[in-house]
Design brief:
This protein is an alpha/beta fold. It has two domains: about 240 residues, Rossmann fold (3-Layer(aba) Sandwich); about 50 residues, no CATH class. The protein contains seven helices and ten strands. The longest helix is centred in the first third of the chain and has 28 residues.
């Protein structure tokens, strides 16, 4: 009988959050600048080691065109960010500056990499906030060293942290086929390489929903609100990958109720908690950090995530049967 009041409280919590988000989004959105125009990306062949330089150059040209359009639009901040992205030292496998932006940036030498980490970001990641996503990718690349490459995959329109979309799997459903296609292309280009999928916050919902169609060595879920599927455990993801989960001691995401509530046209909440013993993931120590600290230089979580990518056992690992 004790579970009924708790379930009722969780339902009220999620519904209250949904109502709050529905009210907050129009208000906050009204203060944002209009969408910044950008050209449609050029059509490119599938990812191939032999054509990497051509892809990098084609996307650099697209970024420069987007920079010019942003400057003409009067958005100097966006133009400055794009100018930095167009630096010849940076390498983009894909770039689309429209609708908040979609990018795939490479850190390290992809053609020679023996280990690849693909980062899948969570909410509020776009061209305007890209710096923090890139900082995490750079920190991980430095931690990995050697013949490793990090792929910062911003291949979907992320939800706002305060929005109705962040409580539902809609944006994740749009992202799943894009992620599966990209990982397949990457695997075809680098078939003998160990690839790990690193999924933060809402990104972990995408990875869990895509898991059965991904051939990767590891799926690492951290700062996760849940997995966004009806699965109650790792077996329900139907993946051959090793599934890892971690949560920082100061991460507010721990307070999110782990339920899935069917409503009229959607489902609210993301269900099972990946770090719970019942879920059965291999957990790793994530230290005392908060929700945005998992790839912070020098952090316990960064060191352990890098060890997982390298095929090593994380320090202070806890295994759940």
């Amino acid at each position: 009988m004790a579970s009924r009041p708790r379930s009722s409280r969780l339902r009220r919590t999620l519904l209250a959050a949904l109502v709050t988000a529905s009210v907050a989004v129009p208000v906050s959105g009204a203060a944002r600048p209009a969408a910044v125009p950008a050209p449609a990306p050029a059509a490119l062949a599938a990812v191939s080691v032999t054509t990497l330089d051509e892809r990098y150059e084609a996307n650099r040209g697209n970024i420069r065109a987007a920079e010019r359009m942003a400057a003409e639009h009067g958005d100097r901040r966006r133009a400055a960010a794009l100018r930095a992205m167009a630096d010849p030292a940076r390498h983009f496998l894909s770039f689309d500056g429209r609708d908040g932006g979609r990018t795939t940036e490479i850190f390290g030498d992809l053609s020679r990499a023996a280990r690849i980490a693909v980062l899948v970001p969570g909410s509020d990641t776009s061209l305007d906030t890209y710096g923090r996503f890139r900082a995490g990718a750079l920190a991980l690349r430095q931690e990995l060293g050697g013949r490793a490459a990090v792929v910062a995959w911003l291949g979907y329109r992320t939800p706002g942290t305060v929005s109705p979309e962040v409580l539902t799997p809609g944006r994740a459903d749009d992202a799943v086929p894009e992620l599966q296609t990209f990982v397949r292309e990457l695997s075809a280009a680098k078939p003998a390489v160990r690839t790990s999928l690193l999924c933060h916050s809402y990104g972990s919902v995408i990875c869990a929903r895509a898991a059965s169609g991904l051939e990767v060595a590891d799926i690492v879920l951290y700062g996760s609100p849940g997995i966004g599927t009806d699965a109650d455990d790792v077996a329900g993801l139907h993946t051959g990958a090793t599934v890892w989960a971690g949560r920082g001691a100061d991460d507010w995401i721990a307070d999110v109720p782990h339920v899935r509530l069917p409503l009229l046209f959607t489902t609210v909440g993301f269900g099972a908690d990946p770090v719970s013993p019942e879920f059965g993931a291999r957990t790793f120590e994530a230290g005392d950090g908060g929700h945005s600290d998992y790839l912070k230089p020098g952090s316990v979580s960064l060191k352990n995530i890098a060890r997982i990518v390298s095929g090593q056992t994380p320090s202070e690992e806890t295994r759940h049967a």
